[in-house]
Amino acid sequence: MTPDLTPKLPGQEPDSAAPPRRESRGPAAEPTHALARGPVVPPTRSSEGFLREFLRELQYGQGVTLARSSPNDQYLAMARAVRHYLMADWLETARRRREHPAKMVGYLSAEYLLGRQLDNALLATDMVDIVQEALAECGISLDTMRAQEVEPGLGNGGLGRLAACFIDSLATLDVSCVGYGIRYEYGIFRQTFVDGRQVEVPDTWLSFGNPWEFPHPEREVEVNFGGHTEQYTDEDGRERTRWIPGWNVLGVPYHYMVPGYQNGVVNTLRLWSARATHAFDLQIFNSGDYAEAVRAQTFAENITKVLYPEDSTPQGRELRLQQQYFFVACSLKDYIDQTLPPDFDLKRLPDQIIFQLNDTHPVIAVPELMRLLIDDKGMEWDEAWEITQKCFAYTCHTLLPEALEVWPVELVGRLLPRHLEIIYGINERFLEQVREAFPGDELRVRRMSIVQDHPFRAVRMAHLATVAGAKVNGVAELHSQLLRDKLLPDFAQMYPDKFTNVTNGVTPRRFVRQANPALSELISEAVGPGWERDLSRLSGLESFAEDPEFREQFRQAKQANKERLRALLLVRDGVELPEGHLLDVMVKRLHEYKRQSLKLLHVVTLYESIRSGEVAAEDVTPRTVIFGAKAAPGYHMAKETIALINAVAKTINADPAVKGRLAVAFPANYNVTLAETLIPAADLSEQISLAGMEASGTGNMKFALNGALTVGTDDGANVEIRQLVGDDNFFLFGMSEPEVAALHASGYVPSQVYADNPRLKRVIDLIASGAFTDGDPGRVSAFVDDLLYNDRFMALADYQSYIDVQERIDAAYADTEAWTRSAILNVARAGFFSSDRSMHDYLDRIWGAGIRL
Ligand SMILES: *Cc1c(COP(=O)(O)O)cnc(C)c1O
């Protein structure tokens, strides 16, 4: 509920009652002492130097002696000590960018799934050995310190992780970039299982203190909401519009360091946190209702309270639109008012910045910039629109029509009345152009309109982004093609040059170097140091695939990673992984289109074939299947699937008939930290979405780079992975996208597939009988009925093909040398999937000239 507040405070003297404000500008006088004038001096790079920093932070920062300190004290102190080593570079990078302003990337993303910061900082500063030695002097283990950190889970999955990889790469390439986002007080929920069912627990990641952020309350900005607009005539006699907001909040920026890889560059990630405005509490305060004033405070701060745990489906909630507008309004204001020089001519804005829209979440920035230019800066519409169109580019992340965000007109009008007017203004002019280009085609006009009428009046954010954006990109070749041909075909016809592709990538720093030290060492020995910055050099591994000694070392590295995973899962989940198994891993968000259900059908097929005696246990390639997946809390079918996976795992792991041959593990709370241990240990990477549904995937890239072979459909970036690693080193199965389309068109009847395939029938019947649910068929009926009578993502249609390819995989894994050879070739040929390469593509195809490399 919106408290009925107006920011105008009639008849009071705000200064006497308002909370004190701090100045945001620094000293004007020149310092006299040399220390105060010179550049920032980093601490000494030695274990003694680090020890000094650490103890100072412990004693003066935490206020405890080493003897009395808790592991959390030690972690906070050591993190701050590590931070000191980045600080000089951070300040220097900022100074350099101020003094030599070049065009900058403003990456706008509602999510950043950063993962733990400590190791990343140690890697960026090349300090692991120094820190380890210094801590050892204090009897502290670095691993214990690492384990103290709760990862900042400010994202749901792939989209948020992509943003984190991109800002890492931009810092490593020394591109001027500020990442803008939201500092959620509660990130993605912590997943626990109760009787095998997902239970969500709030993620209190800030509760022990966060040494990686720098709040800057003196740089707060005001964000307005609600109210109405009115027309007036300005001094020059021009008709103008003014927004009279109904309420407002403050955005406080929190800065995070984004270090490049050992290159002296540290960029900034600026995350916004909502606070109540002073006016806001003051008015109620003056009414004498203290409790009400505090309630208002809470209301304002709710905006950045929690990350919406939805993935691939927009949850149409008012608070979410508030979050979106809040963070882009803060970011634009911060950039225009605080980053640009005060006398900057805004006509030149496109020479200074390109805002990349990570999906539609930040698209409300488009009318916001128009509003700033027209209402606040007095520009004419046409000029403002010309500038706006050059300042934004849009990345689409989906192919699911239901995942395209729309906001009810009623809601936008109530929350952002001026923006709704501007959106109508944009739409009116745009539809005129459509009518001009396609006379008489009113159906097309309706299809393309930014404002839809059916099933309810709403703003189509993807259309707005496509009309406004200088470029629109998909995230893998196939996705970009389907984006043009199927999702936005009218727009592709109208603006053929707008559409482009940038295939996603992942940062090799975190996902190879940091996550897989054993493999990294091997790579460095083989191709020399520095590949972390130029991943194309992995191709130098190609010839080593033929070297039996290297293959043996490669296997040993994989084995070491499996041991590390075993140790982790034992303490983390109380799970004991069997030894010597093929490790078959499917980790990603739980979604029907990703088809965890198909993987589950395979697991039950293996189980049933051993149980029934169809194959002798000793003829089976021993396999452990690991799942990791969170389901959106309101996504019923996804949660049913989780419950069933856990039920199947429990049954299989307890059955002596399959012991030593088949095991299933489902560690709870899949996150970046778990991914970093799981992925390097995997032999087989499961990328089995229905073709035409996964935009790109980035998990698939992480696995290939860590020497797992992929079993996958011809979908997303799998297509490019297969092209690069070669058909012999990739297990392709299932329908292609055109085949899927054809089956849709001809009418797909899953129950017929079931009836026609005796093996599939046995497997589904076994599940349906309650064999995994204590004899209770009721607990599986939703899952089974959906497969038989709906199966929107055609798991049954691809079942036989999947079983067949898995049998080939069993045989292939038995040939150890050939498997290792393929695994090495996967690493050697996957260098393309570095997010550094993605950034080069954005620079070439989207961000354009003016960005200095
Ligand atoms: C990489 C990553 C993802 C994305 O995985 P996909 O298989 O591409 O969906 C999701 N979550 C985490 C924690 C990741 O690290």
From TrEMBL:
Its EC number is 2.4.1.1. It is an enzyme of class 2 (transferase). Its cofactor is pyridoxal 5'-phosphate. Transmembrane segments: none annotated. InterPro entries: Glycg_phsphrylas, Glyco_trans_35, Pyridoxal_P_attach_site. GO terms for biological process: glycogen catabolic process. PANTHER family: GLYCOGEN PHOSPHORYLASE, MALTODEXTRIN PHOSPHORYLASE. GO terms for cellular component: cytoplasm. Residues 1-44 are annotated as: Disordered. GO terms for molecular function: glycogen phosphorylase activity; pyridoxal phosphate binding. Coiled coil: none annotated. The keyword Transferase applies. This is Alpha-1,4 glucan phosphorylase. It comes from the Bacteria. Keywords: Carbohydrate metabolism, Glycosyltransferase, Pyridoxal phosphate, Transferase. The modification N6-(pyridoxal phosphate)lysine is found at K702. Allosteric enzyme that catalyzes the rate-limiting step in glycogen catabolism, the phosphorolytic cleavage of glycogen to produce glucose-1-phosphate, and plays a central role in maintaining cellular and organismal glucose homeostasis. Phosphorylase is an important allosteric enzyme in carbohydrate metabolism. Enzymes from different sources differ in their regulatory mechanisms and in their natural substrates. However, all known phosphorylases share catalytic and structural properties. CDD domains: GT35_Glycogen_Phosphorylase (cd04300). It catalyses: [(1->4)-alpha-D-glucosyl](n) + phosphate = [(1->4)-alpha-D-glucosyl](n-1) + alpha-D-glucose 1-phosphate. Belongs to the glycogen phosphorylase family.
